Amino acid sequence: MANQFLEAPVLAQNTSDLLYVVDEYVAVSPMGTRMTKNACKDCLFVIVNIGATVPLEYALPLYGYLLPIFVATTTVINTFIVIVLSQKHLRTPTNYVLTSMAVTDLLTGLTSLPWFLYYYTMKGYLVDQRSGLDSFWCHVYPYLSYILPTVWHTAVIFLTVFLAIQRYVYVCVPGSIHRVCTPLTTRKCVIGIVLFSLLTVMPEIFGKYMEKTNVDGRNECTIRYTSWVLDILGVQLYYSMYYWLRAVVVHFLPCILLIIFTYKLARTIKLSDFINSGIDPPASRKCSIAAGPGRTLHATNRMLSVVCSVFLLLEIPAALIFVLHIAIATKVLTIDPRGYHILNVLLILRNILIVLTSPIQFTIYCSMSEQFRLTVRQLFSSKLLFVPQAQATFHGGKRYSLILVDVEKQEENKRAKAKSSFLQVNHRYVYGL
Questions:
Q1: CB distance 401 to 391 below 8 Å
Q2: Model-level pTM?
Q3: Mind listing the pLDDT tens digit for each residue in 320-331?
Q4: How many angstroms from the chain centroid is the CA of residue 165?
């Protein structure tokens, strides 16, 4: 699940005043807030108006009913992926990264689910329209709707980048494997990524806070800014710096890195296919060493290349939408009022697609990884055995690892070989060969 949880500055137009306001799910609205005179002049507080920026006719069925089902489904799938990849024979640095991706994706959905259930499924929006959010939801909604999910989705983004870099090291810089791709180094990198993801939302946590405020006799949920934002930066500069920096560091840069390393990995796979087919391409074979370790490594590279490519297909539109919203909010771009509505609807639809990341990844694992399929079967069947298998390494040696084999398939292969041998002997006997 992705950037539906990312907060962005929302442009409010009130005569000539420009005010950055915060609303749910990167929403943009030309008339999205109600504000006091002081709010426009001094930006002391902004009244939260969720309904003005999220089209209810789309949000209610999709966020209120469909998305909780998808979150529940992805929770089950991610839990299953974690169980499978945590099996002893699958504990490799690469699988540790994949497991971490599943956990962070799981937390992205779970931390946002309470807000979806309350506001849309249980019709909390009616209470909000009638009397405003109560004190509890006013204080926790920023954390449940975008801050915590943003932390976990940011971690997913950089874990995917780390996965691509790790595979690049495996196939193109094998001499660095024992420094970059060890279990200890991988764990340190994963922890560092999570801490960095938490650091990216610190301006949100320490720059503003929610408070119930009486406005015209109505208790409104309002956003208030801390003294360092008001006195040092100012609200407009605070939002501009934070969100443009986030757009570059959290969205643009990871997408560029993923494109580069996924391309290199795909190119290596193509070279390997040439070599395996007996054609030695005249092009540079700098990374063609990836063909050496054999079919298992080649299949792993292909699977992870597909995982990164699918993630890019979902993340690039997400990044473009995020940047587009910021550009509109900061008046870098201007669109007519109908454009705001279209952007918000597209955002909701994209959010639904993002939730489908986990089922897509599960399908990739099952269709492209024989060991993943066998491990899934092993959890429910006793007809699988662990056997040692010698595997080539990048530096020319061999290592032994346990792999699962299908007992029934092995027996079937033995019977087929025995039958073939019998027919050959019988053929020689009949024809006197």
A1: yes
A2: 0.76
A3: 877 887 887 777
A4: 16
